[in-house]
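Example record

Each entry pairs one chain with its bound ligand, adenosine-5'-diphosphate.
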Amino acid sequence: MPLLETHALGKRYGDTIALDDLDLAVDAGEVVCLLGANGAGKTTTLNLLLGFLAPTSGEARVDGRVVHTDPQAARARLGYLPEVVQLYPALSGIETLRYFADLSGKPRPDDEALHRTLSQVGLQRDAHARRVSAYSKGMRQKLGLAIALSKGAQALLLDEPLSGLDPKAANELVALVRGLAADGHAILAVTHDIFRAQQMADRIGIMRQGRLVDMVDPRTMSAAEIEALYVHHLRDVA
Ligand SMILES: Nc1ncnc2c1ncn2[C@@H]1O[C@H](COP(=O)(O)OP(=O)(O)O)[C@@H](O)[C@H]1O
Ligand SMILES: [Mg+2]
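Structure tokens for the complex follow.
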């Protein structure tokens, strides 16, 4: 059973179709990237999987749990990296993880486990005790990923995880995401970065005006070919 699934998932606002009949499945070990212009329905897809929005048709499932009928069980199985990671500047990396662990209502993992999570996402040990106000954008993204992972969820949603990262930080994040897939996570990422999507994904979906219009295998196409296909799909959109 896929860890992330949508079945004929749809969302309307009056006459606006934000998402139309989306069928998608992401298995353990897989990274799927969604590309699409602004307004294509990417954020709506993530918000429906998170249970932040109710669908107007179809359903989303996380590890088999239907999101709109069993939101708590679904959300407990889902890690989420928002586009802008909200952090408390005065807390250190390790204090941030402790804080989010306490919020989860579950017993807090011991500090060694929290340090391991921070190291797993590529934060050097000397950064763990540093205040996050001194973190770079790349370090903030890594800490955001550590927060998402510290729940122990196998299914992960990443909203624009590469935006604002320099090439070195973006490379590290791509390697990190591949490593998480190899560890058995199912990852759905929304991105504008075709070049990184080509490196990161097992499949790339192209969305346009609420519809998934194509799904491609990045191993059989160059980033330039994927870009040409993307432009082709968007050709007659204003
Ligand atoms: N709360 C809302 N009310 C009305 N229309 C909305 C609302 N949220 C999103 N939409 C519309 O749904 C479509 C898809 O939006 P969105 O999922 O945010 O796209 P993306 O994330 O791909 O840029 C857009 O046309 C957007 O204007
Ligand atoms: Mg969006």
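The longest helix spans residues 167-182.
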